[in-house]
Amino acid sequence: MKITDRRSLPRRNLSLTTMGLGCAQMGGLFKATSNAEAMAVTDAAWADGIRYFDTAPYYGYTRSERRLGALLCERPREEFVVSTKAGRLMVPDATVGADENGWVRPLPFRPTYDYSYDGILRSFEHSQQRLGIIRIDILYVHDIGRYTHGDDNDRYWAQLTSGGGFRALAELRDSGHVTAVGLGVNEAEVVHAALQEFDLDVTMLAGRYTLLEQESLPLLDECARAGTAIVIAGPFNSGLLVGNNKFNYDDAPAAIVERAKALQTVCAEFDVPLPAAALQFPMAHPAVVTCVSGARTADQLVKNISWFESTLPNELWTALVARGLVDERAPLPGRGA
Q1: Among all residues, which ones are annotated catalytic?
Q2: Tell me: the pLDDT tens digits for 220-277?
Q3: Is 314 within a domain?
Q4: Could you tell me which of 247, 249, 250, 265 has the C-alpha nearest to residue 210?
Q5: Mean pLDDT (the chain, rounded)
Q6: What's the chain's Rg over C-alpha atoms?
Q7: Whose CA, among 43, 77, 244, 259, lies 20 to 30 Å from 166?
Q8: Residue 102 in contact with residue 29, Cβ under 8 Å?
Q9: Among the residues of the chain, which ranges form H helices?
Q10: What is the spatial distance between Cα 291 and Cα 280, in angstroms, rounded to a whole number?
Q11: CA angle, 311 then 312 then 318, to 5°
Q12: Number of domains in the chain
């Protein structure tokens, strides 16, 4: 599989390269990223054929959108796909510190949740201005769900449903301002709930269908039946599968670390880098159209591409299933869906 291969959204006239560039690092996720690094990684992505770029107002408190827009504005608009997100309005606030919610040196704009009709439309317009792009290909509702909101989720869910948030998405899609709409979330349950309320074109699912965990497999099967595409984000589960100790944006629990070590052991038996298996595994599911991987530097991106495109033995996947590390119901690379 090559990163320049394309897969189409089942119900929209839109195709994505099988690898996309996630631009959270452009916003300074866990570590400051320079303008030069952001430019180098974008140039490397373009040179190697990546044509899907994902960002969000929240990343770096608007820094990522501003940087990505400036870097894409000289590229032919018809040649790339860009997605961003709605659900937070970024309000000017001089009290924003040097390190906020994992963002290092964020810009002075405080995120305020708003999933209402007006909130979604305002967020979209603000993103157009920051990106310098009128037609945004995909708009995701960002971080709705109990994983983010806890006991406050019912209130925000009501904004999205009875408060008109989903209606705003439909109007943006029907008017052609966006091609596709969906969710960008970290939990499977809220995607299932949304499918009962609204016609989702695509969902970006971060960290929930990976080599490390496949509890969301029934959801992906449901999406495949419904024609709702899945964009895989967080294929390394915040970094645990690529050598650091982060899981779900926090320090990894001991049990999760042990499971990652078990995956590493099996991969080593077949002389396969664990990150290569992590990038390739979710692509076997028929609902999945692309895998979005972040990179802070061009060298990191080149390594990700090499892992993604490498040829792995079928026996690796058989061994992972046999040892109970991969769900036996999961489609496996090289075996068909």
Answers
A1: 54, 59, 85
A2: 999 999 999 999 999 998 788 888 777 877 788 888 889 999 999 999 999 999 999 9
A3: yes
A4: 247
A5: 96
A6: 19
A7: 77
A8: yes
A9: 35-48, 63-72, 117-131, 146-149, 153-160, 165-174, 188-195, 217-226, 254-269, 274-280, 298-309, 314-322
A10: 9
A11: 155
A12: 1
Q: Has residue 3 been placed in a domain?
A: no
Detail the DSSP E strand segments found in 12-119.
Answer: 15-17, 19-22, 52-54, 81-86, 88-92, 99-100, 103-104, 109-113
Centre a 10 Å sphere on the Cβ of residue 168 and count the other Cβ atoms it contains.
25
Section 183-195 average pLDDT: 97
310 class by beta-carbon count within 10 Å (0-12 exposed, 13-18 middle, 19+ buried): middle
Token digits of residue 137: 């290909």
Length of the chain: 337
Per residue in 94-120, pLDDT tens? 999 999 999 999 999 999 999 999 999
pLDDT tens readout for residues 280-331? 999 999 999 999 999 999 999 999 999 999 999 999 999 999 999 999 999 9
Please give the single-letter amino acid code of residue 214: Q
Residue 252 covered by a domain:
yes
Mean pLDDT of the 130-135 span:
97
Q: Tell me the C-alpha distance between 310 and 294, whole Å.
A: 18
Q: What is the CATH number of the domain that holds 96?
A: 3.20.20.100
Percent of the chain's residues with pLDDT above 90: 92
Q: Is the residue at 334 inside a domain?
A: no
Contact 316, 264 (CB under 8 A): no
- Domain span at residue 280 reads 16-322
Of the candidates 37, 34, 97, 35, the one whose C-alpha atom is nearest the C-alpha of residue 61 is: 97
Q: What per-residue confidence (pLDDT) applies to 335? A: 60
What is the identity of the amino acid at 331? Answer: P
**Residue 253 DSSP symbol:** P
Residue 310 vs residues 3, 142, 274, 296: alpha-carbon distances, Å: 11, 32, 12, 21
